[in-house]
């Protein structure tokens, strides 16, 4: 009986040990039994996790080996292949834009072709440049300088505008009386110099054009002066914030500056008005941007460019332009279309070159020289008109002072009065056409309206280019209109001037 009890206890201990090994220890009898069972469970779990890690490594090693093999095959293919999908460089979808070499080639070809034409001109006509002859373009009579006298008389119109504004600021004149005085003053500014040029025989065409150009610029300036001061009075009446300007006094943000600003009507001084008269802008403002100081090196460079380029303009005109124009008179009289076309194309190259030189001389050298001398801060006299893809973009960017004036004092007022954009744009072109004809026909003392029609023709040309041509094609159309249109108008005016003034003498 005791043996059976001992055997049963032994078998129970074995079952308990086996159950602990399987993680199901049933009521262990002591601490040693519990630790042994835990150690056996941990060992089993560790073996299972190591087995899983091995399986995972084997699973990841297989695709990695495949990728390495594929990469080696691709490397071999890349070494052996010499083709890949790509576009030709001259295709627009290629994204290539570095055509510097082609541009240099165009410049070299242009220089060589013009050098050949210039050499041919020298061999045929000899040296025709005569700086002394230029004086006769301004003076017929050494003792009579009508153009210079007209420029001096223009100061009277400046004083009338200043006097009118001062009386308006004091309330001595009503707005209607002030408007009437400004209208009379501006009207006389356009008619008086034109009458002098037409009636005084000693006025040369070049001198007359210079005087009328001066009066035209002054007309636009005084018109802007009138408008801005009127706006100031309107703001003052509604108790708006006062508008101030630094004028010729340095601003506090610049060296040697102070906080002094001029407020309306303190800006109605002679110094203020004459600063605006000589400033390279047509739009009067209450706060002109000012540069910190005068840069002498910049000023001297612009002065050198002005002197050098004006001599080049005169020389190329005498040596290149005049012989072609003189040789074009006979085909124009005979109405020989083929020879007229040939003369027109011959004249297009030197005329366009002179126009480009004039643009740089006036808009870059001269205006920057004046701005630097007066410390005028806004130097944006032109934008990238050479990239124009439409005629409208060209006229908006090649002459920024005139564009700003037209936009501020003519185009936007028309829109505020209820006119449509098309009518307002047409009115702007009409005004520009009037002044073009005014500056050409009056000095030549003949009215043929070639300049007027040329400017008005820009409207249908702008519509055609804007609706039918894009990108480079539009840019090419703008360049063609500039290269061909100007010499055509020049030939027309020169022919008519020759017929009126020299044909009878020749007969």
Written account of the structure:
The structure is a single chain. With 507 residues, this protein is mostly helical. Helices cover 73% and strands 1% of the residues.
Key phrases:
single chain, 507 residues, mainly alpha, two-stranded antiparallel ribbon, 18 helices, globular, disordered N terminus
**Globular, elongated, flat, extended or rod-shaped: what is the shape?**
globular
**Rg, alpha carbons:** 43 Å
Strand order of the largest sheet: 1-2
**Major beta sheet summary:** 2 strands, antiparallel
What are the low-pLDDT stretches, counting only 5+ consecutive residues below 50? 1-7, 9-39, 240-259
Q: In total, how many beta strands?
A: 2
Helix content: over 70%
Please identify the structural class as seen in this structure: mainly alpha
Tally of separate helices = 18
Ends: how far apart? Answer: 168 Å
**What do the pLDDT scores average to?**
80
Task: Give helix and strand order, one letter per element, not per position.
Answer: HHHHHHHEEHHHHHHHHHHH
Strand content: under 5%
Summary of the model, kept short:
The chain has 507 residues and is mostly helical. The protein has 18 helices and two strands.
Give the secondary structure arrangement, pairings included.
Layout: H1 2-21, H2 31-80, H3 100-125, H4 133-138, H5 146-170, H6 175-199, H7 205-237, E1 244-245, E2 262-263, H8 270-278, H9 296-327, H10 329-334, H11 337-374, H12 391-397, H13 400-416, H14 421-444, H15 450-456, H16 458-468, H17 471-501, H18 503-506
Antiparallel strand pairs: 1-2
Helix pairs in contact: 5-6, 5-7, 6-7, 7-14, 9-11, 11-17, 13-14, 14-15
């Amino acid at each position: 009986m005791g043996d059976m009890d001992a055997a049963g206890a032994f078998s129970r201990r074995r079952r308990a040990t086996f159950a602990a090994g399987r993680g199901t220890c049933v009521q262990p009898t002591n601490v040693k039994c519990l630790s042994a069972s835990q150690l056996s469970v941990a060992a089993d779990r560790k073996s299972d996790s190591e087995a899983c890690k091995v399986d995972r490594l084997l699973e990841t090693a297989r695709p990695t080996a495949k990728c390495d093999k594929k990469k080696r095959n691709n490397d071999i293919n890349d070494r052996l292949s010499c083709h890949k999908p790509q576009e030709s460089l001259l295709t627009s979808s290629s994204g290539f834009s570095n055509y510097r070499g082609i541009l240099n080639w165009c410049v070299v070809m242009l220089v060589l072709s013009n050098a050949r034409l210039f050499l041919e001109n020298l061999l045929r006509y000899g040296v025709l440049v005569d700086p002394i002859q230029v004086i006769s373009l301004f003076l017929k009579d050494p003792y009579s300088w009508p153009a210079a006298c007209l420029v001096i008389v223009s100061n009277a119109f400046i004083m009338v505008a200043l006097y009118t504004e001062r009386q308006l600021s004091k309330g001595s004149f009503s707005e209607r009386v002030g408007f009437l005085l400004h209208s009379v003053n501006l009207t006389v500014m356009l008619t008086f110099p034109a009458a002098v040029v037409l009636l005084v025989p000693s006025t040369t065409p070049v001198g007359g054009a210079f005087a009328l150009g001066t009066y035209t610029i002054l007309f636009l300036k005084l018109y802007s002066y009138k408008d801005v001061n009127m706006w100031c009075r309107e703001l003052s009446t509604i108790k708006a914030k006062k508008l101030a300007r630094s004028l010729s006094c340095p601003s506090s943000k610049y060296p040697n500056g102070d906080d002094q600003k001029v407020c309306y009507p303190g800006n109605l001084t002679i110094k203020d008005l004459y600063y605006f008269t000589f400033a390279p802008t047509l739009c009067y403002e209450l706060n002109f941007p000012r540069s910190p100081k005068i840069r002498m090196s910049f000023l001297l460079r612009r002065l050198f460019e002005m002197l050098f380029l004006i001599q080049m303009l005169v020389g190329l005109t005498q040596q290149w332009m005049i012989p072609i124009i003189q040789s074009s008179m006979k085909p124009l009289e005979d109405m020989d279309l083929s020879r007229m076309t040939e003369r027109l194309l011959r004249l297009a190259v030197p005329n366009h070159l002179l126009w480009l030189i004039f643009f740089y001389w006036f808009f870059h050298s001269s205006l920057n020289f004046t701005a630097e001398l007066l410390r005028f801060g806004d130097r944006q006299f032109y934008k990238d008109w050479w990239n124009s893809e439409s005629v409208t973009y060209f006229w908006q960017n090649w002459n920024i002072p005139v564009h700003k004036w037209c936009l501020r004092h003519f185009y936007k007022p028309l829109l505020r009065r209820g006119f449509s954009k098309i009518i307002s744009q047409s009115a702007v072109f009409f005004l520009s056409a009037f002044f073009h004809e005014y500056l050409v026909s009056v000095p030549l003392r003949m009215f043929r309206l070639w300049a007027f029609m040329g400017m008005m023709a820009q409207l249908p040309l702008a519509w055609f280019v804007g609706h039918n041509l894009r990108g480079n094609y539009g840019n090419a159309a703008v360049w063609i209109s500039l290269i061909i249109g100007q010499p055509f108008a020049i030939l027309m005016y020169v022919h008519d001037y020759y017929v009126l003034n020299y044909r009878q003498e020749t007969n």
